[in-house]
Amino acid sequence: MILQRIWPFLVILALGMVQLAVYYPQLPETMSVHFNKDGLANGWSSREVYFSIQIGLLVVLTGIAAIAPLWGLKPGMKFRLPNREYWLAEERKEATMAWIENSYRKLFLLSMILMLLVSEQVLRANLSQPVRLDSTLFLVALGIYFLIIAAWLIRLFRRFRRP
Question: pTM of the full predicted structure?
């Protein structure tokens, strides 16, 4: 059951590892890792530190995705939900919690995909001369991410309004 829930995260983990393995030998020892609004580097790190952080993030986020559903919601646990009493009534609680878990899993997956896209942009920027982040692609990806979050919030409030 756990594997069924986390396989998309394992795919993202694998893609991230492949991404890092492909780029690692091509990159300079000192990498640009932070960029200003114009895409110009203004922060640097060693290649090893950057890759260690990326690998650590991928592994930790995949681990969180794997164990978070096991935590479940405990009685008395506080979280915000429109019309909470109605949707957490015994006859609707199971379906409500399944919808919430599924939605959060999708948002978490979307966040990991964004992380891979940003990493790809940083890695590509470090291969270019001069080093420059394509701000347009980054902003488009970020804009799409926030549009999806906004759509999800609208869906959340529509889903949990009182019938």
Answer: 0.85
